Amino acid sequence: MDPVSAFIASFKIPIGRWGKAFFDFLTTNFEWFFNSIAHGLTWFLNGLIGLLLMVPAVVLAVLIAALAWWLQRSWKLALGVLVGLLFIINQNLWKETVETLVLVVASAAASMAIGVPIGIWAAHNERVWRVLQPILDLMQTMPTFVYLIPVLILFGLGLAPGLIVTIIFAAPAPIRLTYLGITTVPKSMLEAGSAFGATKRQLLWKVELPSALPTIMAGLTQCIMLCLSMVVIAALIGANGLGKPVVRALNSVNIPLGLEAGLAIVVLAIVLDRISRVRTGGVK
After folding, report:
1. Residue 179 and residue 119 in contact, taking contact as beta carbons nearer than 8 Å
2. Nearest one of 251, 242, 256, 283 to 94, comparing CA atoms
3. CA 28 → CA 25, 197, 229, distances in Å?
């Protein structure tokens, strides 16, 4: 190291020590709080997974295919969903798929429940958006593995930290796209609504949200894909699901297991993506 660099490094800012002291403070004084959240979420997720696993795999696959048809009115999509899920059953990865499905759906639902209201708030308050924008930039550029460290320290290993880290990772997408959808509503539509005497709440529910719905649903699709990618990484902190065989295959260089689990993840991603899309046409 050159002298100038060595001189600068000699006055190193102790960010690491400050961070450790902060997390030590949290775990020492609020361990009961974080443990309560972790136990509650683990109980909920395990209960939901157990309930779905009580249903015969083929029956549940048919029910999911029926849901796909009901949402999209496409028998081709329903057939494709059924074939994809039967492939997963054939690969003996159904239990892991159900665990991943529960984590993805729960984290995506929570991310949308958090992100959509915040996006609406930011769209109606420029000051809020100016504060949020650098935070969202930081969250979306931060390496995914960095999210695992604080969540692991506070919540330990298991399904609960996997859910929490996935929500944190995926939430910026619905915030940004909800903001984009609301702010791009044509002013003529808002002026027409106001001219007919609509209140701010009526404008939101009857003009802004219907107009922004395609963009918000694009946020849902992106949120689901982000949740699915993070759930796989969350297997490193004890979250079960399809990420577990992927990690096992990586550690043991087990090509067959890695290929099977990877294809199962791809099938699940396609199924969730197609089901969550906005239907714009009639019966297909």
Report:
1. yes
2. 242
3. 5, 55, 32
Question: Tokens 């609504």 label which residue?
Answer: 193
- 82 vs 59: CA distance, rounded Å: 10
Interhelix angle 255-276/94-124, nearest 10 degrees = 40
Inter-CA distances, 121 with 16, 53, 125, 213, 236, Å? 34, 39, 6, 16, 35
What's the Rg (C-alpha) of the chain? 22
Q: Mind listing the pLDDT tens digit for each residue in 246-262?
A: 888 888 888 888 888 88
The shares of helix, strand and coil residues in the chain, as percent rounded to the nearest 5, are 85, 0, 15
| Residue 279 Ramachandran class (φ > 0 left, ψ -120 to 50 alpha, else beta) | beta
pLDDT, tens digit, 9 for 90 and up, residues 202-223: 888 888 888 889 899 888 888 9
Cα–Cα distance measured from residue 127 to residue 140, given in angstroms and rounded to the nearest whole number? 20
The rounded distance, in Å, linking the Cα atoms of 253 and 236 is: 16
Of 169, 182, 264, the closest CA to residue 224 belongs to: 169
Helix (H), strand (E) counts: the chain: 15, 0
Burial of 174 (0-12, 13-18, 19+ CB in 10 A): buried
Q: What is the pLDDT of residue 1?
A: 63
Tell me how far apart the alpha carbons of residues 52 and 61 are, in angstroms, rounded to a whole number.
11
CA–CA dist 13, 16 (Å, integer): 8
